[in-house]
Specification:
alpha+beta; 14 helices; 29% strand
């Protein structure tokens, strides 16, 4: 069986000349595309097996062919479909893809229409899951960048951390407060990182960068932080310097989690969230807008559990300028913090004004409009004052501030202005509740630098592009679609949209400089943007663009760039297998651990 699979893969690299003429335009542009016209589809379906030469494979029974194709990955199966018309006309590719989709958890909650295919669904889930894992190796802050570099040998895997940009608050972790315009290695060994002078650092599981602080999660579930600590965002016990310029183990979480371990770390501008393997959510840092979810508007350190979410299992979370959002295991979306522009997606906020909350929502609130959809939210991004939500099928919903175009919903309209209680009343284009945004390959007017909304190019994704991964900056947004394209929208004062100019846009527009490149994931800082691109040699290059006056682009010249520019000198570490990533290793809390918390909560209720 393995010999047959390897033989088929080799054949895919050079299809027979007799079959090349049968590949449609759309199919040749994407491995999993269909024919460009309905007529070609009908002709392909009626084609008898004898007219479609498939070589020696034609002598095998259909059941054996299906077993062979079941061993192929989604890219190889897509090449099979586009190389020989028999595989598509007979429906064998769709049957194999349907079988593979049943084993993918993300695909099981997707809603497929008659125009969709199982092959496209499988590709989207595989592509988006890889983008999510790769995003754990790259993080962009306000004025600095942090990423996990590819090691030269296995012994240093996950230990090569590259940092560059502003170091004024010690956020680079290099034991100094100096800026670095070129990628500089950050050593991760010693007692400060492991918590034990005799323990060896096992490597980085994920990283997260805030406004002026940095967090790493090691593969043993330990958290290390450094940078600005003025609001308690580093989460340390006792008296901590306002600025920490070297990695420092956060022992607070070690004592809070007990038998559990941290599986995810999330950073906002000045606050930090952490999720353990039992789904408990912890928060610390600035809380003046209620973004910590502790029921008040005070800064807090060290980490403490968000009591309002006890009894729920949090599976993922994001943090923005001054707001936070999380998803629980039942698929519900909760948000809290600053609500001045509608970034919480809670709609009418009269309940907040009635409670006297003028600076934000201090408790997690259910985003009801996102809980009645056919597909659950699986990916999120929180910007300065806006939020992005992506469903399992790649549909995207946005809410929050729309003045600068970060929502990508088109030109602003005064009828969407927010309640003056939470805003100056002069902002327009804000969305208080999430609204769907369809991303298309619009044709762009080169002379004017604007997109032509009535001219849309065809895409292998279908009628709209499926969003695989979303990221948000201070006033701009960037998404990666399943067709491999990068789209940006919003403020562009530093060229952070990557379009070669500094004009803001109100619609998601493709970054043409990345066309033809294999983009793996995208990331956004306050005013700069990044993309990880797989090179022809199979290595992961980092491209950055936007604001660079503090060296956060890693180019060495302290300049801003309006188009993606490759960072020289290192490669981003490849995405780790799903079985090794901590965020996929959540488990339900043991019953014996539930009882003490429940008893404590009951006691508090009795006292009230």
């Amino acid at each position: 069986m393995r010999v047959l699979v390897d033989t088929l893969r080799c054949a895919l690299s050079s299809p027979p000349a007799s079959d090349k003429r049968k590949v449609s335009t759309a199919a040749s542009g994407a491995a999993y595309g269909r024919a460009s016209t309905a007529r070609s589809v009908k002709r392909r379906k009626r084609a008898p097996r004898g007219e479609c030469e498939i070589g020696a494979l034609g002598k095998l029974p259909t059941e054996v062919l299906e077993l062979i194709l079941l061993n192929l990955e989604v890219k190889d199966l897509g090449r099979v479909a586009s190389t020989c018309s028999y595989f598509s006309a007979s429906g064998i590719v769709e049957r194999v893809a349907a079988a593979r989709v049943e084993a993918v958890p993300r695909a099981q909650v997707m809603v497929l229409t008659k125009k969709d295919s199982f092959l496209k669904a499988w590709h989207h889930c595989t592509f988006s899951e890889r983008a999510e894992r790769m995003s754990l190796n790259v993080s962009l802050g306000q004025f600095h960048t942090l990423c996990v570099g590819e090691a030269d040998d296995a012994t240093n895997e996950g230990k090569l951390l590259m940092t560059f940009g502003r170091g004024f608050h010690g956020q680079l972790g290099l034991h100094t407060f100096e800026n670095h315009a070129l990628p500089t290695r950050l050593l991760l060994d010693g007692e400060d990182v492991t918590g034990d002078d005799e323990e060896t650092f096992a490597g980085v599981d994920s990283i997260a960068v805030g406004g002026s602080h940095s967090i790493i999660l090691d593969r043993a579930g330990g958290v290390t932080s450094w940078g600005l600590a003025s609001s308690g965002e580093l989460g340390h016990f006792g008296t901590t310097p306002i600025e920490v310029n070297a990695p420092m183990r956060c022992r607070t979480l070690d004592s809070l989690t007990g038998m559990s371990k941290i599986t995810q770390v999330i950073t906002g501008a000045n606050h930090t969230l952490a999720i353990d393997q039992w789904g408990r959510l912890f928060a610390c840092g600035r809380g003046r807008s209620g973004q910590l979810g502790h029921g008040n508007f005070r800064d807090a350190a060290p980490f403490s559990q968000i009591a309002a979410l006890r009894g729920m299992q949090v599976v993922s979370a994001v943090a923005g300028g001054a707001h936070s959002i999380c998803i629980t295991s039942d698929g519900n979306v909760w948000s809290w913090g600053d609500c001045g522009f509608g970034q919480l997606g809670l709609g009418d906020l009269t309940f907040a004004s009635a409670a006297g909350w003028t600076s934000g929502i201090p408790w997690p609130c259910l985003v009801e409009s996102l809980n009645d959809m056919d597909e659950p939210i699986t990916n999120m991004a929180a910007g300065g004052s806006h939020s992005l939500f992506v469903t399992s099928g790649g549909r995207m919903y946005v809410c929050g501030r729309g003045k600068h175009g970060a929502l990508g919903v088109g030109k602003v309209s005064a009828r969407f202005s927010v309640d003056p209680i939470y805003s100056s009343g002069t902002e327009t284009g804000n969305r208080l509740s999430p609204v769907q945004v369809n991303i298309h390959h619009y044709v762009r007017d080169v002379l004017r630098g604007e997109i032509i909304e009535n001219r849309v190019q065809q895409c292998s994704c279908g009628a709209r592009c499926r969003v695989a991964h979303a990221s948000a900056g201070a006033m701009h947004s960037c998404v990666l679609t399943a067709c491999g394209a990068v789209f940006t929208t919003g403020n562009n004062s530093y060229g952070q949209l990557g379009h070669g100019d500094k004009k803001k846009t109100f619609n998601f527009t493709r970054v043409e400089a990345l066309r033809g490149k294999k983009v793996v994931t995208v990331a956004s800082g306050h005013h700069h943007t990044g993309a990880v691109v797989e090179s022809e040699e199979g290595r992961n290059d980092l491209y950055l663009w936007g604001r660079g006056d503090w060296g956060q682009l890693g180019t060495g010249d302290m300049r801003s760039y309006t188009k993606p520019k490759r960072v020289e000198g290192f490669h981003v570490a490849p995405a780790r297998p799903e079985s090794e990533v901590l965020m996929y290793k959540q488990t339900e809390m043991p019953q014996e651990e539930d009882s003490p918390q429940d008893d404590e909560t009951d006691a508090e209720d009795d006292m009230v």
